[in-house]
Design goal:
The chain has 203 residues and is an alpha+beta fold. Helix content is 59%, strand content 8%. Helix 1 crosses helix 8 and helix 4 packs parallel to helix 6.
């Protein structure tokens, strides 16, 4: 079994989906959380000067999307063929588009602009994207967002829904399939255990 180390800042952020994959697959990894001066020292050794970084037997892989796909395919949390993998990746990309819009709100410094962004999120952006995901999940008898089993796309949606709940929790009431999918992820025994054990963080 290869040796895995996952490097990220002290939070969930762009590393949490990879952590969820490891936990669901019951694969050991070293969860290395770096901040402050330690990040400044570590940064030059990263592939792109950013985190997360996945180290596999001493080899460094940068880019959260790349490492998630690598781990999901390796541990059976992706599709069963190349086209299914591509379809799952396209769903993850759409979830990433929502995450990008949420980030604009959370990192906005100007309070007036922040209020404006929140209104747009509640009235336009979140309903648009959750409507897409609601349709995907509702059309799937399994209750997962793709196929008959949980995939890393479900974990990606779950991770982003945490940010949605922080700013517009009431939005979930209009999308029952998305809400049920989120609850199904939380109910997976390995994930439920991790949610109780993981370090507390805002993001």
């Amino acid at each position: 079994m290869p040796s895995y180390k996952l490097y990220y800042f002290p939070g969930r952020g762009r590393a949490e989906v990879s952590r969820l994959i490891f936990k669901q697959a019951e694969v050991d990894f070293e969860d290395v959380r770096i901040g402050g001066e330690d990040w400044a020292k570590f940064k030059p050794s990263t592939p792109y000067g950013s985190m997360p970084v996945l180290e596999v037997d001493g080899q460094m892989l940068g880019g959260s999307g790349s490492m998630q796909r690598y781990l999901a395919e390796k541990f059976g949390l992706a599709g069963s063929n190349d086209f299914e993998n591509a379809e799952i990746d396209s769903i993850v990309d759409a979830i990433g588009d929502l995450a990008q819009e949420l980030s604009k709100f959370y990192f906005e410094k100007d309070e007036a602009k922040k209020t404006e962004l929140l209104e747009k999120l509640k009235n336009e952006t979140i309903p648009k994207f959750l409507g897409i995901f609601e349709k995907l999940i509702s059309s799937n008898a399994s209750g997962w967002i793709y196929g008959s089993k949980v995939t890393y796309a479900d974990f990606t949606l779950y991770n982003v829904m945490g940010a949605v709940k922080m700013g517009a929790a009431e939005a979930l009431d209009s999308f029952p399939a998305v809400k049920k999918n989120t609850e199904a992820v939380e109910a997976l025994p390995n994930i439920a255990k991790w949610l109780k054990e993981r370090p507390e963080s805002q993001f």
